[in-house]
Write a structure and sequence with these properties.
disordered C terminus, two-stranded antiparallel ribbon, 4 helices, Umud Fragment, subunit A, eight-stranded antiparallel β-sheet, 259 residues
């Protein structure tokens, strides 16, 4: 091969002398590097460019760093754009499912012990205005005290959010408390005592703005879907215009640098 005589190694107890083998491999690698240098300079002459001296090596990591950094930033921006878009899309879909698909006359959906619903009446108007969003959390009935606002199920499977004004321990011999409740805008307590089994949860958050937003989505679901599709298409086009082009590949092949 390349006019090189086959190697002749001295034998040792374990085979060929490893030092001779290593020296032979180093010599052949040096020959390959020299041949590569000649081919590289010949390629430049064929293109009409100035010959490159053997001292010129491949671009150093410091020289390649700016281009690689640009590529990484471009990938990061595309990834961030995708995460934001699909995150917003998932949030909208979840919001529509949670607040738009629930039966207003049935028990609220429960996600990890939390339930969300909108206020339908004015019995707690000074605390939770009509149409406000409230979020409840399922808790141990024994931790509910007087003054807490709870959401509970009625016999007709509707929900009411009222304030606890009294507690009856071991209600109906169940070992659990029963709760006397009243709307803050009502003049008297509710007629029925709320059993602990009917408590959906204790109110932990409320927002009239979010409630109105949810009601708007529920009333304009098709309009929201159209805007979501148009917004997704717009984001896709902007991503293509801003981040779609990749950095051009090197026209001159990179020279390998042997270790």
């Amino acid at each position: 091969m390349l006019g090189v005589e086959p190697p002749r190694f001295h034998k040792s107890r374990s085979g060929y002398d490893p030092r001779e083998v290593d020296a032979y491999v180093d010599e052949q690698q040096a020959r390959l590097r020299a041949a590569q240098e000649e081919l590289y300079e010949l390629w430049h002459r064929e293109r009409g460019s100035a010959p490159v001296s053997a001292a010129v090596e491949a671009p150093t990591p410091a020289e390649e760093a700016p281009a690689e950094a640009l590529r990484e930033r471009s990938r990061a921006r595309r990834l961030l754009g995708s995460v934001l878009f699909y995150g917003i899309l998932a949030a909208l879909v979840f919001g529509v499912y949670l607040f738009g698909m629930n039966d207003p006359t049935g028990p609220p959906a429960n996600v990890g012990g939390f339930s969300a619903m909108t206020v339908l009446t004015r019995s707690m108007q000074d605390v939770y205005p009509q149409d406000a969003l409230i979020i409840t959390r399922r808790v141990d009935p024994h931790t509910i005290g007087v003054g807490d606002d709870i959401t509970f199920l009625m016999p007709n499977n509707t929900t009411i959010t009222h304030r606890v004004v009294g507690i009856r321990q071991n209600y109906q011999n169940t070992g659990l408390p029963g709760f006397e409740t009243m709307g803050t805008m009502n003049g008297s307590p509710d007629a029925e005592v709320v059993a602990a089994a009917n408590v959906v949860g204790r109110v932990i958050f409320s927002s009239l703005f979010l409630g109105n937003t949810i009601l708007f989505i529920r009333g304009n679901i098709w309009l929201i879907c159209i805007f979501m599709v148009l917004g997704g298409a717009l984001i896709f086009v902007l991503r293509k215009l801003i981040f779609g082009s990749e950095l051009p590949e090197e026209v001159v092949p990179k020279r390998r640098v042997y270790a």
